[in-house]
Amino acid sequence: MVKQNRSVAHAVHAACNVTQVNPFVQPDSRFFDTSKFGEYAHLLPASMTDDDLYKFTMAAAVLALYPNTNVCYRFTDRSGKGRWTAEALKLLKKCIKLMSKLALTPWERQQCEKRFPWINRMFWDWLAAYRYDGCEVKVWLNKRNDLEIEIRGLWCRTILWEVKLLAVVANVFFTEIDTNWTEEGQIEKMERKALNLANEQVSWADMGTRRRRHLEAQERVVVIGKKYKNFTGTSNVYLALKHDVKALGTMAHEWIMAHSALFSLLHANKFALEAWNYVYKGNLGTALPDTFGTEAFLKDFQGQLARLFDSARQDSGEPIAWFEMMIAHYISLSINWRSKMYGFTDGNTDQTAISINKYVKGKGGDCWFGIGTYFSNDYGPESPACNIVIKLTAVEVDGRWIPVVKLSDTPSKATGDDDAVRNALWTHHGTPLDDASHKQRKVHGHEPVPIRIKPVSRPRLKKAA
What we know:
The chain is globular and about 60 Å long. The chain has a six-stranded parallel beta sheet. Strands 2-3-1-10-11 form a five-stranded antiparallel beta sheet. β8, α17 (about 350-360) and β9 form a beta-alpha-beta unit. The protein has helices spanning about 1-5, 10-20, 55-65, 85-100, 105-115, 120-130, 155-160, 160-175, 185-200, 215-225, 235-245, 255-260, 270-280, 295-300, 305-310, 320-330, 350-360, 375, 420-430, and strands at about 70-75, 135-140, 145-155, 205, 230-235, 285, 310-315, 340-345, 365-370, 390-395, 400-405. The longest helix is centred in the middle third of the chain and has 16 residues, at about 160-175. It is α/β, with parallel strands linked by helices and about 475 residues long.
């Protein structure tokens, strides 16, 4: 089965021929030449742009405002079961080393400048010269044989590891460890899901890069989705360029989390949104409310900001309760809540999206959905998708490493140092520092690592083998 999954692209190609959809057969000279990866090409990104748009929008903003800031990220496997092997780890390290070959092509650069005019053109100069550096990444197995990853370095550089590295981790996992799956029925399954959403006129986009089974699985989502008018695009820039659909994305939690260390934990949302507007001048106006919980966010999301940002997206918690909370907030500010868009990106299926869509539109509102893993990695209960994330854990400020956290509207999704979580809960929600409830929060997938004070100079890490 391992050999079969190593050749999974060929299986997908053949399956696509059956439905007259065959986007994979010939190499595309407009993009990076993946033959440079040799026998590992099927495990690695197809291009420098094989990434989510919000990584580029945030990287451009970081370069503009915080070019010399160092940060630390940690990988978490929320469903880690000690299945990683030394052989799989060795393969992952090889892939990390090979990523240094990735480069933006002239055609990609031209298209990005044309499609994303709100990103300063100097950013594309920088990205054209950018190369991944394996020295920024440390990878190992812990005592439970779960995967551990730490990334350290300049924020403007390390920000580009997250999405591609998660996709590579999933690729290695489903090639070397979980091989209990096939491509049988995948096209038909995706066709049914897309048709369900089309029949109910649900506006949706593909957001499946981070946890996809492999690139071809995500590409299948885009190829099938674009046949319907209710498909709005994809977060993946490479697939957007290749299939001439809209690329979608604004900011992620790390933008707000970093501002909690750079400026203020209490008013991190306010400083993050103001900084975003300073760079993008009213463009990319989708706010992300749940970094420290939506209730905390709304305290900063007042008059000017609430009017400026034309959309907000729910990424944790109960969607209908969140929607009603947003309505009440806009009404309290004398803002027409129907003039705003409401996005839902928290683990939706076609059926949950249909249900939420009916509720929102039934009240006279408008909404959109970003659907990821359920489309790009739905291979049945015997081979579930990896529940993996890479989150910002610390920011270096004046030579000190300041821990940062994400609380979210779903307690089990909280990430970060335990003491920093306690501090954030007290700061934003008044939870007593000695409240025992925080101790019930489980740390999934990795052993806690203390944040130590380090010198201002960039940390030296052992190069990935």
